[in-house]
Amino acid sequence: MADASIYPQLTITRIQNPNKMWAIPIFGFVAKRIILIPVFIEVGFVAIYLFFLLIINSFIVLFTGRYWPYCYQMNLGVLRLIAKIGFFVSGLTDKYPGFGFVIQDNFSLDMAYPEHPNRLFAIPVFGILARLILLIPFLIYLGIIGAGARLGMVVSFVPVLFKGNYPETTFELNRDSTRLGFSSSLYFAGLSDAYPSFKIATTHMTGKIILIILGVLLSGGQAANDNGNKAKYDFGNRFQDQIQNQQPPTSGPGDLI
Predict the structure, then answer these.
(1) DSSP labels for 6-38?
(2) What angle in degrees, to the nearest 10, is found between the helix axes of 205-245 and 126-155?
(3) Segment holding 110, helix H or strand E
(4) Which of 202, 187, 174 is nearest to 5 (CA)?
(5) Which of 73, 78, 148, 179 is close enough to 215 for a disulfide, judged by CB 3.0 to 4.6 Å?
(6) Number of domains in the chain
């Protein structure tokens, strides 16, 4: 994807000889999340810090027409750290992400500095709501692609575990899903006023379409099941409350006659 209009500029080479240990069902999933707990904690604190930077930056853009360089650097740094985490979890890299913002792995992630940000989008409350509303179609699309990417990540354990090979189809789908997610975050954060690109790699489209359809169906089924269980739980609670609230009749003087 050499098109400069597609942001961020994400390039990654397909992992060679992935560690089969991480592909062991359940173990790999649980083990990665356990060892990532310290990094998750760091990201939580950094995200709070970045939130306040973005608020300050909105006023800087509004009154000066310039994007705060420090806020730009922090946005890009946090994005790189999240990319390292995401690619490690999905198996696109076996390198532990660590706690720094510098990438020393099989991928790179860059975003051009916004030279002339739109002041209209920097108006407090209005700018956030406007970008969020505009992003709705893109977020729906991202959810669809993401469902296929998650399913692809799950099924990839078979060729990784038995052949030591990460399939190109699921590799591309995970890479493109990650870029889509980052582009929506960058647009929301004001690092670009150009609407995010919907483009994904068109190679291996048959396999990707199958994964996307199955991913959406499985996600929809899970959501329906969760809603059904919640409805049953709520109904059960209401029924129990009604039983408990039914008090036995009290006897008054008239009842003794």
Answers:
(1) SSSEEEEPPPBS--GGGGSTTHHHHHHHHHTHH
(2) 110
(3) strand 107-110
(4) 187
(5) 148
(6) 1
What gap in Å lies between CA 107 and CA 12, rounded to an integer? Answer: 4
- Residue 87, domain extent: 9-223
Question: pTM of the predicted model, to two decimals?
Answer: 0.81
Identify any residues that bridge with 11 across adjacent strands, giving them in sequence order. 108
CA distance 216 to 128: 28
pLDDT tens digits, 195-213: 999 999 999 999 999 999 9
Helix H or strand E segment including 203: none
3-class SS of residue 176: helix
Q: Look at the alpha carbons of 32, 34, 38, 40 in this order and tell me if their dihedral is positive or negative.
A: positive
CA pair distance 13, 73, nearest whole angstrom: 25
What's the whole-number average pLDDT of the chain?
Answer: 87
CB 219, CB 156: distance < 8 Å = no
32 is a domain residue: yes
**DSSP 3-state of 4:** coil
- Phi and psi of 108, rounded to 5°? -135, 155
Please determine, for residue 241, whether its predicted confidence score (pLDDT) is greater than 80.
no
Please name the residue that has the structure tokens 């956030």: 128
Which two tokens mark 244? 């408990």
Is position 21 within any domain? yes
Task: Please compute the mean of the pLDDT values over residues 110-124 and round it to a whole number.
Answer: 92
